[in-house]
Design goal:
Order of helices and strands: HHHHHHHHHH
Radius of gyration: 24 Å
Structural class: mainly alpha
Number of helices: 10
Helix content: 55-70%
Largest sheet: none
Number of domains: 2
Oligomer: single chain
Strand content: under 5%
């Protein structure tokens, strides 16, 4: 045994005195010290608790900054630690981990091999199903965040395979392109942005009421051109 190797950890099922072939099953591709079922349960619970703790800590810190309100109403501290948003975010990451592990396990058993397609199917379905813990606006934000991470992973994959040569200007060009698209959406088709992103644009541009009126007319002109060209339809847009 090498110096850095750690002794095998005891199974929770064995500690509880529970024994069953299904609970002890492992595929030939598993590198975890635990069985498939225990690995899924441990990963799901760990993701939930870690995310819940981080979200609760941030909420508690932001609440403490409003110390005057806390002095008048101490129950705000409890609400910061125990609330629906913390639970939803914990469920999102927990279900994301659990569903992904389950699908990868099923794919390994059915396909009898372990390659990138198992992880791709597991990650895609897990992310899609986990989004239902959020409302539509939050779902869009998380989807954009995860999509940007997916592009980053694929870019590094192409670099590692030698398909493209890594350059320090690639991320700059991608960032500039995404900002151009965001700026276009804000100026012409604001319905493509989430309400929070649109409000952020209003604050950053510091427009006067007259400027906002002109922007509204400009967006309406763009909308009518797109409707006339058949690109979009009126029922899709928010009037």
């Amino acid at each position: 045994m090498s110096i850095n190797s750690s002794p095998p950890k005891k199974s929770i099922f064995k500690t509880l005195g529970i024994s069953h072939p299904i609970l002890e099953y492992k595929t030939p591709f598993d590198q975890s010290q635990y069985s498939c079922i225990e690995n899924i349960l441990r990963g799901t619970l760990r993701s939930f608790l870690l995310t819940y703790a981080v979200k609760s800590g941030i909420s508690l810190l932001l609440t403490l900054l409003k110390f005057k309100q806390v002095l008048k109403k101490p129950s705000l501290l409890i609400r910061a630690l125990i609330n629906k948003d913390n639970f939803k975010l914990g469920c999102f990451t927990g279900s994301l981990t659990g569903i992904m592990k389950i699908i990868i396990l099923i794919a390994r058993i059915i396909r009898k091999k372990d390659d990138g397609w198992n992880g791709f199917a597991g990650s895609f379905l897990a992310a899609w199903l986990s989004f239902f813990f959020f409302q539509k606006d939050n779902r869009a934000f998380m989807a954009c965040f995860m999509l940007s991470r997916a592009f980053d992973c694929y870019y590094n994959h192409l670099v590692n395979n030698g398909t493209i040569k890594k350059s320090r200007y690639h991320y700059v060009m991608i960032f500039a392109t995404l900002n151009i698209l965001t700026g276009y959406a804000y100026a012409h088709e604001s319905y493509l942005l989430s309400p929070s992103m649109e409000k952020f644009g209003d604050k950053m541009t510091s427009q006067s009421p007259n400027d906002l009126t002109i922007m509204y007319l400009w967006r309406e002109a763009t909308r009518r051109r797109l409707v006339k060209a058949g690109v979009i339809h009126d029922p899709y847009l928010k009037e």
